[in-house]
Amino acid sequence: MLKQRVITALALVAVLAAVLFGLELTGFAVFTGIVFSLAAWEWANLAGYEAMWQRLLAAAGFAAGAALLALAAGAASATGMHTWAVVVVLLPAGLFWLASIYAVATYPTTAARWSARQRRLLAGALVLWPAWLAIVYLRSLPHGIGLFIYIAALVSAADIGAYFAGRRFGKRKLAPRVSPGKSWAGFVGGLASTTLLALVIGVLGVMPAMTTTALLIATVTASVASVYGDLVESMIKRERGIKDSSSLLPGHGGVLDRIDSVTAAAPVFTLFLILLQG
């Protein structure tokens, strides 16, 4: 099992590097759109739509929506309103992730409010479209590759910090009814790791797209969001009664299982980047 996980992980890293450095913006948007369409196919199952035609329809719906978002952003760029058009899409996502804190904290007591499959499908739209738009927008910026790598580093730092702090001090659970393995110590450890990452990058001055203060605020907020990205998927899988979003990635589960933290961190980070940098 471990060997399979390692092989899959190395393959994913190689593909990501090839896409990030080898494709121009349009190719990057198309490739990531395909990845997120697969995530939409998985989310439909999480929402309770089990039939293959329903899941394929969800994937096609995501792809069509992403194309419309790209066309709208392109039209807005002609009037100089490209960035603020992105904000209009990201703001509902930011509110969704804020509301998710309450949903996770009160699960399963308040699950009836969102457990209907239509509402779970709507939640998927609020997760996947803004996340895709956020990473494509970041990639479109002059230092887009660095920003994309920073998002990946942020999520990794949060996971690593949470893992070691949780193992050493993790007695009090963060959300025991959703994910018994997560602890408050791990949560704090993840925040500490990402804060250190932001400070180091800011002091070194290798992220010219943001001031150190803006980078720190965006990083800490996105770090919190990344935790709830993981928790929300875990909560919906628990409600659905399944362990993995799919078996597309041997040893790793599904696409959503790999990008759940990014789907929260990327739009939140991008939103703060835009608002703090004007």
Estimated radius of gyration: 18 Å
Number of domains: 1
Trace the largest sheet across and list its strands: 1-2
Shape annotation: globular
Number of strands: 2
Q: Portion of residues in helices?
A: over 70%
Q: How far do the termini sit from each other?
A: 47 Å
> Low-confidence parts, pLDDT < 50 over ≥5 residues?
none
Q: Estimate what percentage of residues fall within beta strands.
A: under 5%
Structural class by secondary-structure content: mainly alpha
Main sheet, how many strands, which sense, barrel? 2 strands, antiparallel
Following the backbone from N to C, one meets helices and strands in this order, namely HHHHHHEEHHH
Arithmetic mean pLDDT:
91
Ordered list of secondary-structure elements with their pairings:
Layout: H1 2-22, H2 25-47, H3 52-78, H4 82-105, H5 117-140, H6 144-169, E1 173-175, E2 179-183, H7 184-204, H8 212-240, H9 255-277
Antiparallel strand pairs: 1-2
Helix pairs in contact: 2-3, 2-5, 3-4, 3-5, 4-5, 4-8, 4-9, 5-6, 5-9, 6-7, 6-9, 7-8, 8-9
